Amino acid sequence: MRPAHVYADLTPAQHLELVTALHGPWRVATRIVIVLLSASGMSAPEIAELLHYEPVTVRRWITRHTRDGINGLPDRPRSGRPRLGSPTLGHRIHTLLHTPKAWTTARLWRAARRPEMSLRTFYRRLREHASWRRPRLIAKGDPDHDTTCATIQARLAALPTGSVVLAEDETHLDLLPRVRSCWMPTGLRHRILTPGSNIRRTIHGAIDLTTGAWHHHVSVKNVSVVFCYFLQQVLDAYPDAPVVAVICDNGGTHHSGITRRWLAEHPRLLLIEGAKYSPQDNPVERVWAGLKHHIANTAPATMAGRVRQAHAYFRDRSTEQNLITAAPWTSPWLPEGFGQDFWPRA
């Protein structure tokens, strides 16, 4: 027994949806159907009535297929609307961005002589030549940098066997949280509580450039007396070393009268100051960067809690981790051939 005939029952909305699809995303397939229906003997007006096209459109696609085959049925490339703005707009944007300034989209649009386009369109043009990021702060440098570093290398190379060489620096520890970008759940922005008023502590730190041993001290202020106390702490850590050389920057506490008098009373400690305005030479700077990244986006209730964070960070790190972070072999302070056995110890 033959099955019953089945007919589609379409609502007006469904019929419109199918016709729209045939004329839209499935238009190339519709053109193939036009060619197949024409090959089966249907005329152009009949095909046009069936597929809701004009007869002239049906004839155009049949002719296109006859001439180019199936490769002629897809849409041909179109030029589209000409780009807004003059051809030199990109060059103007590029030239303006070479001048350091707090450039925003609106400010740059005004400086580019207000091209006739929306700010959103101008933003898309801007993205072709620039990216949104913060500038990098750099030290102005010391004109005698190379000479100073060569002098430091010579002094270190002349140290007796068993000497200890450390890099020293200071940084500030604030109760006010340091906020940095990080991953957050979509739709949620974490809120970090700020204190009523900021409280600051100073950390003196020094790393043994050979073994990676770390020494640090937290104080209320960075004054000469505290710096001398920290030097005494470092000196006591190496009682058998003939010389303990400490390389530091040119901070005021490093050459104050109090510090000079203390150094005269402790000849076993050799304090060497590096080049001016050259923090990139000091391996301890990278240790501070790791500490501040560790405590970022956290808000302890008290300054004692912040100090405990710093103590825990240094306590949980091994000497190997300290060396990897500080990377002292990249510093221009150290003489050629520097390594574990450069100053052999008993």
Automatic annotation (TrEMBL):
Source organism superkingdom: Bacteria
Residues of the Tc1-like transposase DDE domain: 167-299
Region (Disordered): 69-89
Xref: Pfam families: DDE_3 (PF13358), HTH_32 (PF13565)
NCBIfam families assigned to the protein according to its UniProt record, in alphabetical order: transpos_IS630
UniProt-recorded name of the protein: Transposase
Organism of origin: Kutzneria viridogrisea
Classification lineage: Bacteria, Bacillati, Actinomycetota, Actinomycetes, Pseudonocardiales
